[in-house]
Amino acid sequence: MSAEVAAVEIQEAPVAAPIMYKVESNDGTVFEISDEAVKQSNTLSNLISTCAPEDVASMDPIPITNVTGNILKMVIEWCEKHKGEALPVDDDSVPKHITVPEWDTNFLKIDNEVLFDLIVACNYLDVPGLMNYGCKMVAMMAIGKSPDELRIIFAIPTDEEDEAAERAAKEKAEAEKKANAEKDAAEPSTSK
Amino acid sequence: MAENDGETIVPDEQCNLTASTPMKSSGLEQVESPKERKTSMVECDDEGNPSSGTPDESPKQLTPHSIPPRRRRSPRRPEVSASRLPLKVLNQIFQYLPLKDLRSAMLTCHSWNNALSMEDSDIWQYLLGKKLPEAAVSDPFLLAELGSAKKKLRAWYFAWNTSDISRNNYIRTNGFTVHRQPVAQSTDGVRGKRGISKGVHAFDITWDGPLGTVAVVGIATKHAALHCVGYVALLGSDDQSWGWNLVDNVLMHNGAQLGVYPKMNNPPKYEVGDKIRLIIDCDTHVAYFERNSEFLGIAFNHIPPLRLYPAVCAVYGNTEVTMVYVGSPQMG
User: Fold this and answer.
1) Between A98, A131, A169, which is nearest B75 by CB?
2) For residue B37, is it within any domain?
3) Alpha helices of A127-191 — where are they, by DSSP H?
4) B59 upstream amide cis, omega within 30 of 0
5) Which residues of A touch B93 (CB under 8 A)?
6) Does B228 lie in the same domain as B111?
7) What InterPro entries does the record tag this protein with (chain B)?
8) Chain A residues whose beta carbon lies within 8 Å of the beta carbon of residue B110
9) Residue B90 and residue B238 in one domain
């Protein structure tokens, strides 16, 4: 009887205690990600592949210096949701074809700027599953649109708008320079 | 008389010049419509992203997602935005787009145009592998002069038209070579898939197999006939086509001979297998030929501003003609 109880306890131990890794975003926020979820990111998998499991608890967080906290949080949330899944394998259809599951569709209903930040973070962290879904969502916005419509959807300025912005910035800089010059001219007369 | 020695069948003296094209007009119109839309793509490529290429904006709903407001952003801040995505990311997004949408993407902004202008990137390699027949991809000589996947893909869209061809011709599995079957007392032609009406365009044409008594290369509108009874220089026999008969080096248009071409004494005869480059300059309304990269002089001028297709007509059984579009020729 006591032997059976001991056996059960031993069997339950691995399931109850996943290894949690700590990662830190560029604004200092620390997140935890499980060892199964880490496998969705090739970059993170390579970083932890040489760490002994018993040393994980005392390690400093892994610094991710070019991803912000809210984006890193989303990536980790996605990885936790899809932990245990195989990494996607590209088929060779043209145009490329992929079906985005419903959960991921809702997950990616975010502001376009956040979506682009998320895609760039996936590119750096090498999360192919989320990368495919994110790029697919962007492509679906673009299908069937004219160039003018694409500029509106993705907030892309035209060359004329770019020139106008540069001209405004230049005028602003010149105005500041002029104000500083006047200020410098005023001071010598005061000292005199 | 000497010209007939090579013929197993003596041609009749009477010719039926009024033979109509076997294509139905409704079929032609259907074929024409998608070409109209695709032509602007190549014209944009040739002209280097002209501003006039922007299509009209439609009032339909733009996107199921909310459109972010167009906030002015300082040009100095390196924020991530659609126009500043890394190249690798852009390529992944573009892999989901069909060809027509890739054209819209090329016209949207500079960075997208730069990404899609890399003519051997994965996107064009994918499309090339899927669109071109295996026989064309594996032929080491057919498209050798085209240096990039995108150019080869473009040549495919200009190749001989399998649905705008005489019934006695068929197009081989490589998609670029037309084969004339051995049918007596028949002249048989073929047109390219896409016509041109702006810019400067070059087509490399190679005649393999004997010429017979008629072997004409030239240009035609979509109304020019592609078949008639007898052995006739059909291309150039009316006001819808212009042709150069390689057998006697004579230029033809509207049924009239315009003289020998190249304009010299005893111009050399065409050697079977030589490459002829047909160049159509729609902006100055002239057409001319080069042979093995040698300029031969202006062939046709005062060409009306119509949509023109490369075309050939042949009479010899089992002769073959290959046509590859090469885009704008390099001047100088």
Assistant:
1) A169
2) no
3) 128-142, 147-153, 159-191
4) no
5) 135, 138-139, 142
6) no
7) B30.2/SPRY, B30.2/SPRY_sf, ConA-like_dom_sf, F-box-like_dom_sf, F-box_dom, FBXO45-Fsn/SPSB_families, SPRY_dom, SPRY_FBXO45
8) 159
9) no
∠ CA A129-A130-A135, rounded to 5° = 105
Q: Are A136 and A100 in contact (CB under 8 A)?
A: yes
Q: Which residues in chain B land under pLDDT 70?
A: 1-80, 331-332
| One domain for residues B190 and B96 | no
pLDDT at A100: 87
Of A111, A112, A138, the CB nearest to B93: A138
Are B215 and B302 found together in one domain?
A: yes
Q: What residues are paired with B242 via a beta bridge?
A: B219, B253
The more confident residue out of A135 and A86 is A135
Determine what percent of chain B is predicted with pLDDT higher than 70: 75
Q: Which of B83, B108, B113, B122 to mutate to test the interface with A (most CBs of A within 10 A)?
A: B108
**Taking CA atoms, what residue in B is nearest to A112?**
B68
The answer to whether B86 contacts A123, with C-beta atoms less than 8 Å apart, is: yes
Q: Round to whole Å and give the CA distance between B208 and A94.
A: 34
* Same-domain status, B271 and B188: yes
Q: Which of residues 33-92 of A touch B (CB under 8 A)?
A: 92
Whole domain around residue B106: which residue ranges? 82-147
**H helices within chain A, ranges in order?**
2-16, 35-38, 42-48, 69-81, 102-107, 112-125, 128-142, 147-153, 159-191
Closest to B63 (Cβ–Cβ): which among A96, A141, A159?
Answer: A141
Is A14 an 8 Å CB contact of chain B? no
Q: Where are the alpha helices (DSSP H) in chain B?
A: 25-47, 87-94, 99-106, 110-117, 122-131, 134-137, 149-158
Domain-located, residue B205: yes
Task: Express each pLDDT in A118-153 by its tens digit.
Answer: 999 999 999 999 999 999 999 999 999 999 898 888
CATH number for the domain including B309? Answer: 2.60.120.920
- Residue B305 and residue B25: Cα distance in Å, rounded? 21
Percent of chain B with pLDDT over 90: 51
Q: How many domains does chain B have?
A: 2
**For domain A20-87+101-143, which CATH number applies: 3.30.710.10, 3.30.565.10, 3.40.50.2300, 3.40.50.80?**
3.30.710.10
Residue B29 lies in a domain: no
* pLDDT per residue as tens digits for the range B98-123: 888 999 999 988 889 988 988 888 88
Domain map (residue ranges) of chain A: 20-87+101-143
Is A144 an 8 Å CB contact of chain B?
yes
Give the model's pLDDT for residue A91: 65
Parallel, antiparallel or unpaired: strands B169-171 and B177-180: antiparallel
Nearest-by-Cβ selection for A152 from B67, B71, B94: B67
- Distance between CA atoms of residues A56 and A52, nearest Å: 7
Q: Quick one: tokens of A187? A: 């001071």
Partners of B298 in the β-ladder: B288
Residues of A in contact with B97 (CB under 8 A): 95, 139, 142-143
